[in-house]
Amino acid sequence: MPSFTDQIGRTIVLPHFPRRIISLVPSQTELLFNLGLDEQVVGITKFCIHPASWFRSKPRIGGTKAIDPARIDALQPDLIIANKEENDRQQVEALAARYQVWVSDVKTLSDALTMIRSVGALTGKEAEAGELANEIDARFSILPTPPKTSPAAYLIWYKPWMAVGSDTFIHQMLRYCGFDNAFGDRDRYPQIDTSDLNELTGILDLTILLSSEPYPFRQRHIDEIHKTLPNAAILQVDGELFSWYGSRLLHAPAYFRQLRERSSTPPPPEIPTL
Questions:
Q1: In 3D, which of 163, 41, 6 has the Cα closest to residue 50?
Q2: Domains of the chain (ranges plus CATH)?
Q3: Percent of the chain beyond pLDDT 90?
Protein backbone atom coordinates (compact mmCIF):
# COMPACT_ATOMS: atom_id res chain seq x y z
CA MET A 1 0.00 0.00 0.00
CA PRO A 2 1.29 3.51 -0.79
CA SER A 3 2.90 5.36 2.11
CA PHE A 4 3.40 9.10 2.48
CA THR A 5 5.70 11.02 4.81
CA ASP A 6 4.35 14.30 6.12
CA GLN A 7 6.27 17.48 6.91
CA ILE A 8 6.98 16.53 10.51
CA GLY A 9 8.45 13.17 9.50
CA ARG A 10 5.47 10.90 10.21
CA THR A 11 4.46 8.23 7.70
CA ILE A 12 0.88 7.33 6.88
CA VAL A 13 -0.46 4.53 4.68
CA LEU A 14 -3.39 4.96 2.30
CA PRO A 15 -4.80 1.87 0.60
CA HIS A 16 -6.43 4.09 -2.02
CA PHE A 17 -6.89 7.76 -2.79
CA PRO A 18 -9.01 9.22 0.02
CA ARG A 19 -12.76 9.44 -0.48
CA ARG A 20 -13.59 11.15 2.82
CA ILE A 21 -11.22 13.99 3.70
CA ILE A 22 -11.40 16.34 6.69
CA SER A 23 -9.32 19.51 6.62
CA LEU A 24 -8.34 21.19 9.89
CA VAL A 25 -6.56 24.10 8.18
CA PRO A 26 -8.28 26.99 6.35
CA SER A 27 -5.58 27.59 3.74
CA GLN A 28 -5.36 23.88 2.97
CA THR A 29 -9.14 23.64 2.72
CA GLU A 30 -9.03 26.24 -0.03
CA LEU A 31 -6.23 24.25 -1.68
CA LEU A 32 -8.39 21.11 -1.72
CA PHE A 33 -11.14 23.11 -3.40
CA ASN A 34 -8.77 24.39 -6.07
CA LEU A 35 -7.59 20.85 -6.70
CA GLY A 36 -11.17 19.84 -7.52
CA LEU A 37 -11.89 17.69 -4.45
CA ASP A 38 -15.44 18.85 -3.78
CA GLU A 39 -16.98 15.41 -3.35
CA GLN A 40 -14.08 14.02 -1.33
CA VAL A 41 -13.99 16.75 1.36
CA VAL A 42 -16.58 15.88 4.02
CA GLY A 43 -15.54 18.17 6.89
CA ILE A 44 -13.89 21.54 7.55
CA THR A 45 -13.37 23.93 10.48
CA LYS A 46 -15.46 26.97 11.33
CA PHE A 47 -12.54 29.13 10.17
CA CYS A 48 -12.43 27.59 6.69
CA ILE A 49 -14.17 30.56 5.09
CA HIS A 50 -12.89 29.96 1.54
CA PRO A 51 -14.57 28.95 -0.65
CA ALA A 52 -17.81 30.49 0.55
CA SER A 53 -19.84 27.64 -0.96
CA TRP A 54 -18.01 25.10 1.22
CA PHE A 55 -18.27 27.33 4.28
CA ARG A 56 -22.04 27.33 3.83
CA SER A 57 -22.49 23.67 2.97
CA LYS A 58 -19.72 21.48 4.43
CA PRO A 59 -20.07 19.99 7.94
CA ARG A 60 -17.90 21.81 10.49
CA ILE A 61 -15.91 19.90 13.08
CA GLY A 62 -15.10 22.81 15.42
CA GLY A 63 -12.21 25.26 15.41
CA THR A 64 -8.62 24.75 14.38
CA LYS A 65 -7.56 24.41 18.02
CA ALA A 66 -10.89 23.16 19.41
CA ILE A 67 -11.78 20.10 17.36
CA ASP A 68 -14.91 18.12 18.22
CA PRO A 69 -13.84 14.45 18.08
CA ALA A 70 -17.45 13.23 18.04
CA ARG A 71 -18.17 15.19 14.86
CA ILE A 72 -15.06 13.75 13.24
CA ASP A 73 -16.04 10.21 14.26
CA ALA A 74 -19.48 10.72 12.74
CA LEU A 75 -17.89 11.66 9.40
CA GLN A 76 -15.55 8.61 9.35
CA PRO A 77 -12.69 10.21 7.40
CA ASP A 78 -10.07 8.16 5.60
CA LEU A 79 -7.69 11.16 5.64
CA ILE A 80 -7.33 14.17 7.94
CA ILE A 81 -5.08 17.05 6.91
CA ALA A 82 -3.64 19.10 9.78
CA ASN A 83 -0.87 21.61 10.46
CA LYS A 84 1.79 21.68 13.16
CA GLU A 85 1.26 25.35 14.06
CA GLU A 86 -2.45 25.83 13.51
CA ASN A 87 -3.76 22.74 15.27
CA ASP A 88 -3.47 21.52 18.84
CA ARG A 89 -0.77 18.87 19.15
CA GLN A 90 -2.59 16.69 21.68
CA GLN A 91 -5.77 16.71 19.62
CA VAL A 92 -3.89 15.81 16.44
CA GLU A 93 -2.05 12.98 18.18
CA ALA A 94 -5.35 11.63 19.51
CA LEU A 95 -6.81 11.68 16.01
CA ALA A 96 -3.67 10.03 14.59
CA ALA A 97 -4.24 7.07 16.91
CA ARG A 98 -7.49 6.32 15.05
CA TYR A 99 -7.16 7.89 11.60
CA GLN A 100 -4.62 8.61 8.89
CA VAL A 101 -3.48 12.18 9.70
CA TRP A 102 -1.07 14.04 7.42
CA VAL A 103 0.55 17.10 9.09
CA SER A 104 2.10 20.03 7.27
CA ASP A 105 4.78 22.33 8.68
CA VAL A 106 5.16 25.46 6.56
CA LYS A 107 7.65 28.22 7.37
CA THR A 108 8.95 29.13 3.92
CA LEU A 109 7.69 29.42 0.35
CA SER A 110 9.62 26.23 -0.45
CA ASP A 111 7.76 24.43 2.37
CA ALA A 112 4.46 25.68 0.95
CA LEU A 113 5.24 24.43 -2.56
CA THR A 114 6.27 21.05 -1.15
CA MET A 115 3.04 20.90 0.85
CA ILE A 116 0.93 21.64 -2.24
CA ARG A 117 2.65 18.95 -4.28
CA SER A 118 2.40 16.48 -1.39
CA VAL A 119 -1.33 17.06 -0.92
CA GLY A 120 -1.74 16.49 -4.65
CA ALA A 121 0.07 13.17 -4.40
CA LEU A 122 -2.05 12.16 -1.38
CA THR A 123 -5.34 12.87 -3.08
CA GLY A 124 -4.80 11.74 -6.66
CA LYS A 125 -4.38 15.30 -7.92
CA GLU A 126 -0.64 15.23 -8.52
CA ALA A 127 -0.76 16.87 -11.96
CA GLU A 128 -3.10 19.65 -10.85
CA ALA A 129 -1.05 20.33 -7.71
CA GLY A 130 2.17 20.38 -9.74
CA GLU A 131 0.76 22.96 -12.14
CA LEU A 132 -0.46 25.09 -9.23
CA ALA A 133 2.88 24.94 -7.39
CA ASN A 134 4.79 25.75 -10.56
CA GLU A 135 2.59 28.79 -11.27
CA ILE A 136 3.00 30.11 -7.71
CA ASP A 137 6.75 29.61 -7.95
CA ALA A 138 6.84 31.45 -11.29
CA ARG A 139 4.88 34.42 -9.97
CA PHE A 140 7.19 34.78 -6.98
CA SER A 141 10.23 34.38 -9.22
CA ILE A 142 9.29 37.40 -11.33
CA LEU A 143 8.48 39.56 -8.30
CA PRO A 144 11.15 42.27 -8.59
CA THR A 145 13.69 42.46 -5.81
CA PRO A 146 13.19 45.82 -4.08
CA PRO A 147 16.14 48.21 -4.35
CA LYS A 148 16.20 48.30 -0.57
CA THR A 149 14.16 46.89 2.28
CA SER A 150 12.43 49.08 4.81
CA PRO A 151 11.73 48.19 8.45
CA ALA A 152 8.25 47.02 9.40
CA ALA A 153 6.50 45.57 12.42
CA TYR A 154 3.67 43.15 11.62
CA LEU A 155 1.07 43.09 14.41
CA ILE A 156 -1.49 40.30 14.84
CA TRP A 157 -3.15 40.86 18.24
CA TYR A 158 -4.19 43.44 20.79
CA LYS A 159 -4.33 43.25 24.61
CA PRO A 160 -1.70 42.08 24.64
CA TRP A 161 -0.05 43.43 21.53
CA MET A 162 1.51 40.56 19.62
CA ALA A 163 3.82 40.74 16.63
CA VAL A 164 5.36 38.35 14.14
CA GLY A 165 8.93 37.30 14.85
CA SER A 166 11.36 34.99 13.07
CA ASP A 167 10.84 31.32 12.17
CA THR A 168 7.39 32.01 10.72
CA PHE A 169 5.90 31.96 7.24
CA ILE A 170 4.86 35.62 7.57
CA HIS A 171 8.46 36.56 8.36
CA GLN A 172 9.55 35.29 4.95
CA MET A 173 6.58 36.87 3.19
CA LEU A 174 7.64 40.23 4.64
CA ARG A 175 10.96 39.81 2.85
CA TYR A 176 9.21 39.17 -0.45
CA CYS A 177 7.16 42.28 0.19
CA GLY A 178 10.30 44.37 0.65
CA PHE A 179 10.19 44.70 4.44
CA ASP A 180 12.78 43.95 7.10
CA ASN A 181 11.01 42.55 10.16
CA ALA A 182 11.54 44.94 13.08
CA PHE A 183 10.94 42.03 15.48
CA GLY A 184 12.97 39.56 13.43
CA ASP A 185 15.35 39.08 16.36
CA ARG A 186 12.55 37.48 18.37
CA ASP A 187 11.12 34.03 18.04
CA ARG A 188 7.73 33.15 16.54
CA TYR A 189 4.96 35.46 17.87
CA PRO A 190 6.34 37.67 20.64
CA GLN A 191 4.11 39.53 23.05
CA ILE A 192 5.09 43.19 23.09
CA ASP A 193 4.15 46.22 25.15
CA THR A 194 4.40 50.00 24.96
CA SER A 195 8.10 49.95 25.83
CA ASP A 196 8.76 47.69 22.83
CA LEU A 197 6.89 50.11 20.59
CA ASN A 198 8.82 53.02 22.11
CA GLU A 199 12.06 51.30 21.08
CA LEU A 200 10.93 51.62 17.46
CA THR A 201 10.64 55.42 17.59
CA GLY A 202 14.18 55.98 16.34
CA ILE A 203 13.77 53.77 13.26
CA LEU A 204 13.53 55.76 10.05
CA ASP A 205 10.96 54.81 7.40
CA LEU A 206 9.19 52.48 9.84
CA THR A 207 5.93 50.89 8.71
CA ILE A 208 3.44 49.26 11.07
CA LEU A 209 1.39 46.55 9.38
CA LEU A 210 -1.91 45.65 11.04
CA SER A 211 -3.09 42.26 9.85
CA SER A 212 -6.74 41.68 8.97
CA GLU A 213 -6.55 38.40 10.90
CA PRO A 214 -6.68 36.98 13.48
CA TYR A 215 -7.50 40.27 15.25
CA PRO A 216 -9.93 42.80 13.73
CA PHE A 217 -7.92 46.03 14.08
CA ARG A 218 -9.90 49.26 13.84
CA GLN A 219 -9.22 52.98 13.62
CA ARG A 220 -8.86 53.26 17.40
CA HIS A 221 -5.88 50.89 17.27
CA ILE A 222 -4.29 52.98 14.56
CA ASP A 223 -4.81 56.08 16.71
CA GLU A 224 -3.24 54.38 19.72
CA ILE A 225 -0.14 53.35 17.76
CA HIS A 226 0.11 56.80 16.21
CA LYS A 227 0.41 58.36 19.66
CA THR A 228 3.50 56.25 20.36
CA LEU A 229 4.92 56.25 16.82
CA PRO A 230 3.77 59.53 15.23
CA ASN A 231 6.24 59.27 12.34
CA ALA A 232 5.49 55.68 11.36
CA ALA A 233 3.34 54.75 8.38
CA ILE A 234 0.49 52.52 9.49
CA LEU A 235 -1.13 50.18 6.97
CA GLN A 236 -3.94 47.67 7.37
CA VAL A 237 -3.04 44.62 5.28
CA ASP A 238 -4.68 41.43 4.06
CA GLY A 239 -3.52 38.82 6.54
CA GLU A 240 -4.62 35.95 4.31
CA LEU A 241 -2.13 36.98 1.63
CA PHE A 242 0.67 36.99 4.19
CA SER A 243 -0.21 33.79 6.06
CA TRP A 244 -2.30 31.45 3.89
CA TYR A 245 0.19 29.05 2.33
CA GLY A 246 -2.08 27.16 -0.08
CA SER A 247 -3.52 28.19 -3.42
CA ARG A 248 -4.09 31.77 -2.20
CA LEU A 249 -0.36 32.26 -2.73
CA LEU A 250 -1.21 32.74 -6.41
CA HIS A 251 -2.40 36.24 -5.54
CA ALA A 252 0.31 37.21 -3.04
CA PRO A 253 3.00 38.53 -5.44
CA ALA A 254 0.65 41.02 -7.13
CA TYR A 255 -0.59 42.16 -3.73
CA PHE A 256 2.95 42.59 -2.41
CA ARG A 257 3.81 44.69 -5.45
CA GLN A 258 0.84 46.98 -4.74
CA LEU A 259 1.72 47.17 -1.05
CA ARG A 260 5.26 48.27 -1.87
CA GLU A 261 3.81 51.15 -3.86
CA ARG A 262 1.50 52.14 -1.00
CA SER A 263 4.27 52.05 1.58
CA SER A 264 6.70 54.02 -0.59
CA THR A 265 4.27 56.76 -1.60
CA PRO A 266 4.71 59.81 0.65
CA PRO A 267 1.56 61.29 2.18
CA PRO A 268 0.17 64.43 0.56
CA PRO A 269 1.53 67.68 2.01
CA GLU A 270 -0.53 69.29 4.70
CA ILE A 271 -2.45 72.36 3.64
CA PRO A 272 -1.23 75.28 5.77
CA THR A 273 -3.75 77.02 7.94
CA LEU A 274 -4.19 80.63 6.81
A1: 41
A2: 3-140 (3.40.50.1980), 150-264 (3.40.50.1980)
A3: 85
